[in-house]
Design brief:
The complex is a heterodimer.
Chain A lengths: L1 H27 L7 E6 L4 H14 L2 E6 L2 H11 L7 E4 L2 H9 L9 H6 L12 E12 L24 E2 L6 H14 L1 H14 L8 H10 L4 E5 H9 L3 H9 L1 E3 L10 E8 L6 H11 L2 H11 L2 E2 L8 H6 L9 H6 L1 H11 L3
Parallel strand pairs in A: 1-2, 1-3, 5-6
Antiparallel strand pairs in A: 3-8, 4-6, 4-7, 4-8, 4-9
Chain B lengths: L6 H8 L3 H24 L8 H40 E2 L3 H7 L8 H12 L4 H9 L5 H4 L6 H12 L1 H14 L1 H9 L4 H12 L1 H17 L2 H5 L5 H11 L3 H26 L16 E2 L2 H37 L2 H35 L2 H11 L6 H19 L5 H5 L2 H26 L2 H8 L4 H12 L1 H17 L2 H6 L7 H10 L3 H31 L1
Parallel strand pairs in B: 1-2
Helix pairs in contact in B: 2-15, 2-17, 2-18, 2-19, 3-4, 3-8, 3-9, 3-12, 3-14, 3-16, 5-16, 8-16, 9-12, 10-11, 12-15, 14-15, 16-27, 17-18, 17-21, 17-24, 19-21, 21-24, 22-23, 24-27, 26-27
The chains are: A alpha/beta, B mainly alpha.
């Protein structure tokens, strides 16, 4: 009886493989015809899913998606080479787009729509990638414990006044890597390393958790200032959980370096892959994502700043007001990423 | 009967059935391709960031890894062996319940436990809210207590992974308990003394095997340690490969990790020695030690603690989060996610058991060192971080794709076959160790008898040994099923387009810091795994009586 049951289970297992495989084949069919576009994306937001559906509705082009971290997707692209089915690579950071470009995984695109929608400092000079949303890395602080005068610049975070008061996540986080890369670009490597060492000295605790956790830690009084991306605070402010909203109410936001170069801004962006089998569709998708409709949804549903000038922001973003953004060429963030990571490791920023 | 055996027949019986061995070696060769791809990288010159990684990162990373391995190893042993002893040898309120419930934390992926603990204990979590309401003037020091530290990681790993030790120890104790312990007690030794002098030596193989599994899981975890900011050896691999873009350094690091695990596996073998355990004559009827008063309370507390920490609390927190998000998250797409998860896990479980049977049986009938050594190679996949295996599989599958179907990476992008292959590479150790221990338990005599009676090796396996093994086979299939259900990096990297599973959805939303939205998927993973583990309990229980 036992062996019969077991054999049954194995047979069922194998049948399952066949069914799944057939389902997979039916879903994609290896068809590189004109009515689909294949996307490798690091973004797994609800907003993106809605946008892809809208794109399909408008154009009849089906969007196939694999989501994973940009680093893993880049590795997959590298290994697939010219056999890769991917048409579009979407990441949440310019540094990774730059890496994809320098590994020869992307191809130049010239599109008047993209060029007019995306300001030139938010896209690659050769058209290998285009920013789609902006995220500012800002201070979130406890207004009753922190003096805003000490929060004027990123540089100030390394000052002794902040000893044991700074909350920031680990250096494996790409947003921190890009922030440090921007400091390397503006201040030079020595000053940037001194800054990183100063911040490590000032940390209220060993880096742990995500940006939301840093904001909560400010509210709890673990530290007095956190360095986070804007949309995390917007999400807490918009949350259905009253406790989350209480946290958002308890803290204040400040955009650094407003009297100088402006707050550090990174982009989530996309590029067309080198061997894209559906190149035309890929370009159409990027154009769609940079258009008014999509840009407004990015802003509304995910609280990211649109790249396209003139697109309305979400209410929460409007309440924080306009700010001066650093216009450093984002390609530089990619070029200096390696250097930034090494600095983090040398100063012992976990 | 034996007297009448001719010399020729004896020779034939003793002859190694090379066809089996050949099949097993072929399977090992296929499974080993991704591992060899990684292993071969160790011989290549170090990458450009080797000095940087080895000089600035590894000392601290290795330090953390050693703390985790030692801490989790010891704690999992104490919890696993202690609880197994209590539920098999003593009688206290709830011992029957605990004897199966203590396996449940295995259903909870470590990173989900990590996220829920942090969510429960942070400033918006229920614990702090309660404290603030009850004691408004509660000191800041308590409110600022931070769970995200290495000590918490040790506890989290221990309370979700100890069931490996518990399960193996419990099985051994149930089988061998009888006469040995009875006589030990007749000699007048106290309960504690029997535990340390007789019980512990008895379960040594289970301790070694269980801890080997626990530590392999610890070594390749990335989710929990990343979230809690505790960089480990695996963090180093990721930093070198993905952040610094230095494949050679990452591969060298992975190779070192594989070597460490190989040493662990060899040690486990070595401590077992040549001893062959079999159940012949073991009695399963033991008078349990009755525990009363504070001893009974202590036993309940000892068993309840890991169950609460590793299972009840994470599930409760996920339920609370799901209550907030289920309305928007659970829709038709959720059903598809569930079916994807179940289908993959069932297929991988079935395949893994089939392959494990071939390997274990070959190793057993060949009785030489060749197959035994070769199968070790097939087990190494369990030790290497999933993301690294994924790249090994990617290279192997793409090579096959290019030769068989030139110009299209079809296997990978259009089917789940590459993913299933990756699961086999990754989880063969789980299936194999379980099947192998089953074979060991059956002992040699049954097979020899069947072979002597003229049955072929295949017939002996199918008609005589597999039915005796059905408990072990069921256990192997279910453990792989649960592992695949929870698996992340392989699934993320190797799945075809538009193919999500419960685990990938839960993880991606959690890393996006949308914990409430991730909760229903996470809960579904845990509840399904729980249901299957309850079935496992039944299978094992039936296996013993039937």
């Amino acid at each position: 009886m036992g062996s019969g049951a077991k054999k049954g289970a194995v047979t069922r297992g194998l049948a399952m493989v066949a069914v799944l495989a057939a389902g997979g084949l039916a879903a994609c069919g290896g068809d590189t015809g004109a009515d689909e576009v294949n996307v490798y994306s690091h973004r797994h937001y609800e907003a993106d899913r809605r946008l892809f559906e809208q794109f399909t509705e408008e154009t009849g082009i089906r969007v196939n998606v694999v989501t994973a971290s940009a680093d893993e997707l880049i590795t997959r692209l590298e290994n697939e080479g010219e056999d890769s089915p991917a048409d579009v690579l979407i990441t949440v950071d310019a540094g990774r787009l730059h890496r994809a470009k320098s590994l020869g995984l992307l191809q130049p695109v010239s599109s008047s729509v993209l060029e007019s929608n995306v300001p030139s400092h938010l896209r690659d000079g050769d058209g290998h990638w285009f920013g789609l949303t902006r995220r500012a890395r800002v201070y979130v602080y406890a207004s009753n414990r922190a003096d805003t005068a000490d929060l004027a610049t990123y540089e100030g975070l390394a000052e002794p006044v902040w000893e044991d008061r700074v909350l920031i996540r680990s250096s494996s986080n790409v947003y921190n890597q890009s922030l440090l890369a921007s400091l390397v670009a503006h201040l030079g490597p020595e000053a940037a390393e001194a800054w990183a060492a100063g911040v490590v000295r000032n940390m209220a605790r060993e880096p742990a958790g995500g940006d939301t956790d840093q904001i909560k830690a400010v509210a709890a009084g673990v530290g007095d200032v956190a360095v986070v991306n804007t949309y995390y605070l917007a999400r807490l402010a918009d949350s259905e959980d009253p406790e989350d909203r209480r946290v958002a109410d308890a803290v204040s936001i400040r955009f650094p370096n407003q009297d100088g170069r402006g707050a550090h801004v990174n982009v989530s962006g996309a590029g067309v892959t080198r061997h894209a089998p559906n190149r035309t569709n890929a370009v159409r998708l990027l154009e769609f994502l940079s258009g008014d409709e999509a840009q407004a949804l990015f802003a509304e549903a995910n609280h990211e700043y649109p790249v396209k000038p003139g697109v309305e922001w979400s209410e929460t973003l409007r309440a924080w007001g306009e700010f001066r953004a650093d216009t450093l060429d984002l390609t530089v963030l990619g070029e200096l990423n390696d250097e930034a990571v090494r600095i983090f490791d040398r100063v012992g920023w976990p | 009967m034996a007297v009448g055996l001719s010399a020729a027949r004896l020779t034939r019986l003793r002859a190694v059935p090379w066809r089996w061995v050949g099949l097993a070696l072929a399977l090992v060769a296929v499974l080993a391709v991704p591992i060899v791809v990684i292993g071969a990288g160790v011989l290549r010159p170090a990458g450009p960031s080797w000095d940087h990684v080895a000089g600035t990162l590894l000392p601290a990373y290795v330090g953390n890894t050693v703390i985790l391995v030692l801490g989790v190893g010891v704690l999992a042993l104490v919890l696993g062996v202690g609880a197994a002893w209590l539920v098999t040898m003593t009688r206290f309120p709830g011992h029957r319940f605990f004897s199966w419930a203590l396996v449940l934390p295995l259903a909870v992926p470590a990173y989900m436990a990590a996220y829920t603990w942090a969510g429960m204990l942070d400033v918006t979590g229920p614990v702090q809210r309660l404290v603030r309401t009850v004691v408004p003037g509660m000191s800041d020091a308590f409110l600022q207590w931070n769970v995200m530290r290495i000590e918490a990681v040790v506890v989290i790993f221990a309370v979700v992974l100890y069931p490996y030790v518990f399960l193996l120890s419990r099985t051994l104790l149930e089988r061998r308990s009888g006469s040995v312990l009875e006589s030990a007690r007749l000699l007048g030794r106290s309960g504690w003394s029997v535990f340390f002098r007789v019980g512990v030596p008895l379960v040594r193989p289970a301790m070694a095997g269980g801890v080997a599994l626990v530590l392999m899981e610890v070594l390749n975890d990335y989710g929990a340690v990343k979230y809690y900011g505790v960089p480990t050896f695996t963090t180093g691999i990721f930093r070198a490969w993905f952040t610094l873009g230095d494949v050679d350094t990452a591969i060298r690091l992975s190779g070192i990790l594989m070597l460490i695990v190989l040493v662990l596996l060899v040690l486990e073998r070595w401590q077992r020695g040549d001893a062959r355990y079999s159940d012949a004559g073991a009695s399963r009827f033991t008078a349990r030690y009755p525990l009363r008063g504070w001893r009974a309370a202590g036993a309940v507390a000892f068993c309840a603690t890991p169950l609460v920490l590793g299972f009840a609390l994470p599930v409760a927190q996920l339920l609370a989060w799901s209550g907030r998000s289920a309305g928007t998250v659970v829709d038709a797409g959720f059903l598809v996610l569930s079916l994807n998860s179940f289908g993959l896990a069932a297929a991988a479980g079935g395949l893994a058991v089939a392959v494990a049977v071939v390997l274990a049986y070959a190793a057993r009938i060949e009785r030489g060192r060749l197959t035994a050594a070769a199968t070790k190679l097939a087990l190494l996949g369990y030790s290497v971080p999933g993301a690294v295996i994924a790249v090994g599989v990617l290279v192997a599958v793409l090579a096959l794709d290019r030769t068989v179907l030139p110009g299209a990476a079809t296997l990978l992008t259009a089917t789940v076959l590459a993913l299933l292959f990756a699961y086999l590479v990754r989880f063969m150790a789980v299936a194999f160790l379980s099947v192998e221990s089953g074979f060991e338990r059956v002992g040699e005599s049954v097979r020899m008898a069947s072979r002597t009676a003229g049955a072929s090796p295949l017939r002996t396996l199918a008609r005589v040994e597999l039915p005796l093994l059905k408990g072990a086979l069921g256990a192997a299939g279910i453990l792989v099923f649960v592992d695949v259900l929870k698996e992340l990096p392989l699934t993320l990297i190797l799945r075809p387009f538009n193919f999500d599973t419960l685990a990938t959805r839960a993880f991606q939303l959690a890393t996006d810091e949308q914990l409430a939205a991730s909760a229903p998927s996470a809960l579904m993973v845990i509840l399904t795994a729980t249901a299957v583990l309850v079935v496992l309990h039944r299978v094992l229980a039936n296996g013993e009586t039937g």
